[in-house]
Amino acid sequence: MGLGLGGGGGMAMINRNHVVSFLAGAALPTLLLFFLASDRVSEQLAIVSSWGSGGSSSAAAADHDLRGAGGDAAPPPAQQEKFPGLPELLPKVAMEDRTVIITSVNEAWAAPGSLLDLYRDSFKNGEGIAHLLDHVLVVAVDPAGFRRCKAVHPHCYLLHVKSINLTSATRFMSREYLELVWTKLSLQQRVLELGYNFLFTDCDMVLFRDPFRHIAVYADMSTSSDDYSAARAPLDNPLNTGLYYVKATSQSVEMLRYWQAARPRFPGAHDQAVFGHIKHELVAKLRARIEPLDTLYFGGFCEYHDDLARAVTMHADCCVGLDTKVHDLTDIAADWKNYTGMSPEERKKGGFKWTYPTRCRNSIGWRKPVHP
Asked: Which parts of this chain are annotated as the region Disordered (predicted)?
């Protein structure tokens, strides 16, 4: 006498009912896990990808990095990756604390002898910052810029921007320029969603020292200024988003979403102008902590200090024209080489000044800022 299902009668019916109940019970947890996990598919794929790239990411680490004073970040909804390849690339670029440095170029900015070369050389000639170049992600906005980037730099990403031509020096405030800056902001939001902090810098900039040593650890966002005065309330300083650091927290993700959502309220404005309009809203509504950076360290052609012992960056802001930027930044890079070539005794004598950025300041009719 067996216990199989081949016989007839009540016993067979009971056994069949048991099997059906067993199969349904076994399938239910599987289905439940599938539906619970479905809204985190893209996030988990990014984590698996980082393992495959040799990164040290884990689900716990990614979740931890997106926690801050503002609470837990809601994971992005499952969808096709808006920036294909980015989740796989970031673990290769990031520092141990999951921070990446981001800059962007087009064909003209990446050409030999142009801004990308000046930018990269500044890391090599700076004080103890050559290693940071390994953590720079160069975002190219056209195929020619991407090819040039790949020829000189290990970490390049091609950003597709709505079928517009960005291969030439894009005219400031043109339709192409506006689409570019807003798309870059969307990419930066995705970097945060994936659990990475970032320091964004325009490529029309040279670096001298480690910028992270002068960025407040408590702030959600630290950004440079065109004209800084400690006598002002922090947000009353005119902020320049040519250089800014953002921590990967739920609060910072929401801040970038709010920033982009504000675009229609200010038609024709670029990202920096909109940020200037809404910065107080970000603090009042989202409780974001935004910290301006002192031009004593993070200078630019709008305002800088002739204190080379403390200079960290120099930005070709308050300047119009690619050739103009390259010319005046080349002078700055030469000044830095002369300064670092001095003996300690010569440096102590002081009196060293940056070459005045004549072409850039003339290009906008610059006037000296008036401080309170």
From this structure: 51-82
